[in-house]
Amino acid sequence: MTENTSPTIVIAPDSYKGRASASDAARYLGEGVRKVLPHAEIVLAPMADGGEGTAASFSGRTITLPTTDAAGRLTEASYLYDEATATAYIDVAAASGLPAVATSPVPLTGDTYGTGVLIADAQTRGARCITLALGGTATIDGGTGILVALGATPLNPRGYAVPKGGGYLSAIADIDTAQLNIPAAASEWVLLCDVHSPATGPKGAAATFGPQKGAEPEDIAILDAGLSHLCELLDVDPSTPGMGAAGGLGIGLTWLSRILHGDDSHIRLLPGAPVVAASLGLDALIERADLVITGEGRLDEQSTQGKVVGTVLDLAHPHRTPVAVATGSVHGEAPAGARVTLLIDTPDDRAQLIDAGRRIAQDYLRTSTVQG
């Protein structure tokens, strides 16, 4: 442990959606801390949980190429490719995200084809492992758009191609693999989830996330029935935690990997935040820290279910490292072990976070002085 006048402070926030990226948030919080503790050793470790911006948490070369958005319109999207590990890191939201269709949502017809284009491109560059961050999508298609992009065609009972999107999943009777891109399909798959939701049911992909993707109640019933049918057709367990992430994207990819390898040994569905934390060596950083600062836009019951705040708290607990959380709002009870600081009400995002960092540092200084 360091002296209280020059503590080691690790700053590991999530992004504040629509306000500040994780990197910017960490930097602004650090500026605030520095105003009170000018000699502190500040370690910036911006985090992610499998949502938008997760790919940027890893190292690699940025690849940008034309593809399509969730509505099928031409767009550009980027991903990271690490040649040293032959791994591509792709945010599904980069091509198939909600912002591109926010003014005209496509809950029934939107698909992940554009993400499949990125995957196929990564394989041509030598990628053997595809790491997908599943958060922030506009789609509920069970991953069928990716399947189509990789040459697997969903067919109806008469042998015709099924229209794209989650609204037509119930019409699928078979999937034709005659034109399958086998090198891409045979990749090692790592699916990083920002939620634990199952694929179907009252806590499933359609019921939980359909409304924010523009789905009306009648749409949700169609989508949930379609995902249930797809799981049954492809022999995928819909109750698997995280299978509901990204509109059930893991359903299609689990089947795809299984038909090529015979089992599920080449696909992993993992909570995103712990994987990102491990890549950053966050546990070792927290072990030697006097204080950890984390945060997100809204603190609620999901914050401790695979999200950044919960992951930081879990890592800090065995080391007894204090955790401060900077957040815009608290819904429900604050997580045990977290000292919560609410952001001030101002449209200036930088000022909000600098102020929060300053107040957290003042609180730390006051508490550490009292404790002696």
From TrEMBL:
BP-aspect Gene Ontology terms: organic acid phosphorylation
Pfam families: Gly_kinase
Enzyme class: transferase
Gene3D superfamilies for the chain: Glycerate kinase, domain 1 (3.40.50.10350), Glycerate kinase, domain 2 (3.90.1510.10)
Molecular function via GO: glycerate 2-kinase activity; glycerate kinase activity
Keywords: Kinase, Transferase
Origin superkingdom: Bacteria
Entry EC no(s): 2.7.1.165
PANTHER family: GLYCERATE KINASE (PTHR21599:SF0)
Similarity comment text for this entry: Belongs to the glycerate kinase type-1 family.
Name of the protein this chain belongs to: Glycerate 2-kinase
